[in-house]
Design a protein that fits this description.
Layout (H helix, E strand, L loop, with lengths): L1 E5 L6 E6 L6 E6 L4 E9 L9 E5 L2 E5 L9 E7 L8 E6 L22 E8 L2 E11 L24 E2 L4 E3 L10 E3 L3
Antiparallel strand pairs: 1-2, 1-4, 3-8, 4-7, 5-6, 6-13, 7-12, 8-9, 9-10, 10-11
Amino acid sequence: MLGLSRAVSNGNIKLKSTTTITSTGAQSYTVPAGTLYLEIEMWGGGAGGGAGDSSGGRGGTVYQGGGGGGGGAYVKHKYLDSNLLSGDTINFTVGAGGAGTSTSGGLNTKGTDGGATTVNTHKRSSTTITTFSSISAGGGIGGRSALIILNSPPDFGAGGDAANGNITNTDGTDGTYPPSTSGTAS
């Protein structure tokens, strides 16, 4: 989050502070004195990928990678409110990245989804000043594990959706899946 303020002597706007937050879960940011507006950049959590699989036979072993998890979305939002005071808090949630699967385990086994990062409220003490409506950098969807028996590629996870940033909204990139490769059985 960036807090920007106006210099008293010449009226120029300058950067007040920059805060980078990498821990996940529900959190709050305290607005520094002199802040005019906040620029908030958010990334959704990337999803975990699906496990690979192999099957062997007379022709050798076929190896199939699992589907990749989708990337998290990116949102940039400018919050300008004449009621923004020193000591106010901006409450938000940072989405965690998803975990990959460790075994193929079947068609419906997939990496876990990434969490969404959201801006939730602007509060002064216990009073809610603003409830933000759906400003969200969505998390990616987990990739499915490979299942050679079906002789089809695993599904990759979709990228997260970006919503309601007033500067930038960039959806996450879809995961991919690698092609099958063959080798000789040992």
